[in-house]
């Protein structure tokens, strides 16, 4: 029998689309979408997604390793689980996306580019997620962890991006993020088209995008640097006690977004600028026509700088650190 990843990459549905172990029932929902339901009562539901960008393979390999002992019946399952490999066509081609960035299309934004394959996939994933939450008991806690890797290297190889959220984050969710030994948390202030913002805004899920290392092809990832994340995920899935965190992650808030509007856009950062690189107040970050982006606070840190994005999309975020000591004047 092919593994979930192998079957997804094959591009054809499996001959057997559902089954059962001593602990769970599983069902192939659609290409790259698998549900697992414990045979015993549980009070937590989790959407675990990866491969929203097809060149980000380390998270996909981690998900595969987590699924194997569950599907073989070796390990129990303690949560209602929906596993999603977001963009199978892009995974097969090793490209970030085929026609349009899938992680900018959720929350109905897919309607703007409805003719693209990613728009159709975004709609499908929204519908699958809605059915999944609807099938859960109302009192069941809802979590969504979307696993990614960054295009660039980072001063923090493991960090999480939190969608804008007017509700308090559940204590258990924040404790789990610390147990996964994430080094930093980045809090958005504005809505966006990401998968986690969709699940948080529309389904009131505790959601986070986990950024794990740098994008590399299948087979070239050093998964040892993500052992803490994998252990924490395994504990969550199997109902074990979470590891005790050694430290708490540093906290950052988005202070401004740099947006590329057209062909005249210039980002004043080198191609090897790392995520969380600091810039002092007054630094010119980017320009396009009469528009200039400067560092506005005493110190700001860049995240996801990418001048090659399509017009209208984010070319970088600037962050301020929570409770940071300001530099001496």
TrEMBL record:
Gene3D superfamilies: Zn peptidases. Its EC number is 3.5.1.96. It catalyses: N-succinyl-L-glutamate + H2O = L-glutamate + succinate. Its cofactor is Zn(2+). Residues 44-236 form the Succinylglutamate desuccinylase/Aspartoacylase catalytic domain. One of its GO terms (molecular function) is succinylglutamate desuccinylase activity. InterPro entries: AspA/AstE_fam, AstE_AspA_cat, Aste_AspA_hybrid_dom, SuccinylGlu_desuccinylase. Zn(2+) binds at residues 53, 56, 148. It is an enzyme of class 3 (hydrolase). Residues 248-321 form the AstE/AspA barrel-sandwich hybrid domain. Pathway: Amino-acid degradation; L-arginine degradation via AST pathway; L-glutamate and succinate from L-arginine: step 5/5. Belongs to the AspA/AstE family. Succinylglutamate desuccinylase subfamily. PANTHER family: ASPARTOACYLASE, SUCCINYLGLUTAMATE DESUCCINYLASE. This is Succinylglutamate desuccinylase. It comes from Pantoea eucrina. The gene is astE.
């Amino acid at each position: 029998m092919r593994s979930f990843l192998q079957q997804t990459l094959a591009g054809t549905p499996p001959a057997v689309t559902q089954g059962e172990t001593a602990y769970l029932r599983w069902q192939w929902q659609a290409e790259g979408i698998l549900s697992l339901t414990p045979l015993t009562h549980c009070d937590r539901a989790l959407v675990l997604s990866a491969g929203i960008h097809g060149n980000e393979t380390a998270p996909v390999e981690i998900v595969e390793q987590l699924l194997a002992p569950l599907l073989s019946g070796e390990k129990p399952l303690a949560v209602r689980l929906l596993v999603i490999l977001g963009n199978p066509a892009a995974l097969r081609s090793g490209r970030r996306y085929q026609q349009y960035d899938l992680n900018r299309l959720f929350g109905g934004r897919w309607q703007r580019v409805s003719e693209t394959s990613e728009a159709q996939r975004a709609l499908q994933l929204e519908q699958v997620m809605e059915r999944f939450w609807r099938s859960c008991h109302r009192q069941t806690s809802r979590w969504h962890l979307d696993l990614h890797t960054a295009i660039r290297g980072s001063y923090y190889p493991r960090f999480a991006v939190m969608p804008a959220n007017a509700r308090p984050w559940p204590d258990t969710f924040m404790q789990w993020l610390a147990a996964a030994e994430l080094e930093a948390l980045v809090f958005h202030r504005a809505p966006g088209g990401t998968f986690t913002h969709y699940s948080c805004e529309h389904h009131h899920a505790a959601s986070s995008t986990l950024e794990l290392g740098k994008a590399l092809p299948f087979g070239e990832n050093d998964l040892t640097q993500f052992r803490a994340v994998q252990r924490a995920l395994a504990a969550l899935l199997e109902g074990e006690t979470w590891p005790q965190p050694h430290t708490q992650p540093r906290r950052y808030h988005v202070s401004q977004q740099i947006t590329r509007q057209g062909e005249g856009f210039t980002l004043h950062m080198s191609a090897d600028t790392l995520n969380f690189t600091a810039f002092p107040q007054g630094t010119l970050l980017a320009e396009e026509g009469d528009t200039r982006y400067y560092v506005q606070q005493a110190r700001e840190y860049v995240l996801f700088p990418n001048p090659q994005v399509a017009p209208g999309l984010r070319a970088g975020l600037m962050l301020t650190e929570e409770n940071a000591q300001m530099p001496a004047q």
